[in-house]
Amino acid sequence: MSMNVSVLFDVLEERLRSLGESQNAPFPLRVIHFLRMVWNICKSFFDNKPAENSISECERIFVPQECTWDCGIACCNMILKWNRVKYTPAFDRHIVSSDQKPLWTIELFCLLKEVGLDVSMYTICEGVNPQHKRLHWYANSSSEYEVAATQERFKQARSNNWKVYEEELSLEMLQSIVTQESSVAVVLVDSHTLHQIESTDYSGHYIVVMDYDDKTDEFTCLNPSRCPGTMFVSSYVLERARCHDGTDQDVLICHRKPAAR
Predict the structure, then answer these.
(1) Which of 34, 196, 208, 251 has its CA 20 to 30 A from that of 105?
(2) Per the domain annotation, does 52 fall within a domain?
(3) What Pfam families does the annotation carry (predicted)?
(4) pLDDT tens for residues 114-147?
(5) Contact indicator for 170, 156 with CB cutoff of 8 Å
(6) Domain co-membership, 191 together with 216
(7) pLDDT of residue 178 exceeding 90
(8) Cis omega before residue 228 (within 30°)?
């Protein structure tokens, strides 16, 4: 029943948005947003989440982004806290990206590997996808220098035998992985689709996916652009957001180190 309600909200909202500029669209959309909010509040109250990736755990590790470009670094710092790794200057946003540009997924992957974390990367395009040149988001990120630097990071990963898979990670696999208490994921999504904002432009954004509830068919996510950062996202919305043109379906799978005895 609960899963059907979440899917129903998604379908209704998409149908209403398809009305475009219709005068009847704005008010019903506000009603759907209100009902979804009430539903999420009730659901989170009655849900019995696993202890490790519970709401309190989300609150403990949450790190907000400070600028428009540092969501990826904020997610990496959340992964550090989730792994109970002490802060390291290597993850200072001003040191990592002195030119204040968003980092590529492979750069985030290498940062996490360089501090010894158990991480693997999935992408459907190893390197800089030439098709992204037509997207405004990549207008300043496809220079020869950027392309060469990104390729160098992939070479670094290969030379160290780090796990980079040039293949799609299915929704079912993502659901299965984050259901395990010892695994979470950093996922590249289209921000507009995630926040259900009508737009034809791509806007890259990183979030941490903490858990999946098969009863509601929703993921528990940490969104560094929101405060508080915990949000519940249906499989339908997350799948559309992470498979949007521009993401290359990039996912970092992070495993927690066993506790020292």
Answers:
(1) 196
(2) no
(3) Guanylate_cyc_2 (PF09778)
(4) 989 999 999 999 888 878 878 888 776 656 777 7
(5) no
(6) yes
(7) yes
(8) yes
Regarding whether 175 and 101 lie in a shared domain, the answer is yes
Q: To which residue do tokens 């360089």 refer?
A: 114
Strand bridging mode 164-166 / 118-123: parallel
Q: Is residue 261 part of a domain?
A: no
- Full domain range(s) for residue 9: 5-47
Which has the closest alpha carbon to 226: 249, 253, 201, 208?
208
Tokens 């309600």 correspond to: 5
pLDDT tens digits, one per residue of 201-246? 899 999 999 999 999 999 999 999 988 899 999 999 999 999 999 9
More confident residue, 226 or 24: 226
The answer to whether 224 and 90 have CB atoms below 8 angstroms apart is no
Intra-chain end-to-end CA distance of the chain, in Å: 43
Does 127 lie in the same domain as 37?
Answer: no
Flag whether 260 is in a domain: no
Maximal CA-CA distance, the chain: 63
Long-range contacts of 92-97 (CB under 8 A, 24+ apart): 93/66, 93/67, 97/69, 97/70, 97/73
Helix, strand, or coil (residue 210): strand
Angle (CA) 249-251-254 rounded to 5° is 170
β strands within 7-58, DSSP E: none
**Crossing angle for the helix pair 235-242 and 2-17, to the nearest 10 degrees:** 50
Tokens 């290498």 appear where? 110
77 vs 229: CA distance, rounded Å: 14
